[in-house]
Every structure is written in C-alpha cells, then in structure tokens.
Amino acid sequence: MLTLYTRPNCPLCEEAKLMLKLIQEDFPVEFKEVNIEEDDRLHEKYMLMIPVLEQEGKILIYGNIGYAEILEALGY
C-alpha cells in the first residue's frame, strides 16, 4: 500500500493522483491519500515537498511525480 501525502489546492498533488489512477489500470497498485493539513506533524514534515509518495515509511518520490517516475520507483 502506497501513501500519497497531499494538501488542498495543490496542482502537483492532483497530477500525482491522476498518474496513480492511470497506473492502477495496468498494475496492482493501491494507494491512500493523506491530507497533511489535518496533521501538524505531517504538515511540518512535508509542507515543502508535497506531493510525497511513500511506501512502508520510505519516501519513494516527491514533488513533480510522473507516470514513468512512479513505475520506476515501484520496479515496473
């Protein structure tokens, strides 16, 4: 399970979500979205990095997250 850290009004976050949904059409990828604005600790940790894609506590990619970058990070 992947975790996508986002916040409202974030165009890069929307793009990352779209890329993950496109990947889900071809690969068995599950993700949950977490709004960093709802948790002070997460907000402080990720506010300058979002969107952040994480797997099992390890940051895979952050910032401008594209289709190819996600596939590469997941080993596809």
UniProtKB/TrEMBL annotation:
InterPro entries: Glutaredoxin-like, Glutaredoxin-like_YDR286C, Thioredoxin-like_sf. Pfam families: Glrx-like. This is Glutaredoxin family protein. It comes from Planococcus halotolerans.
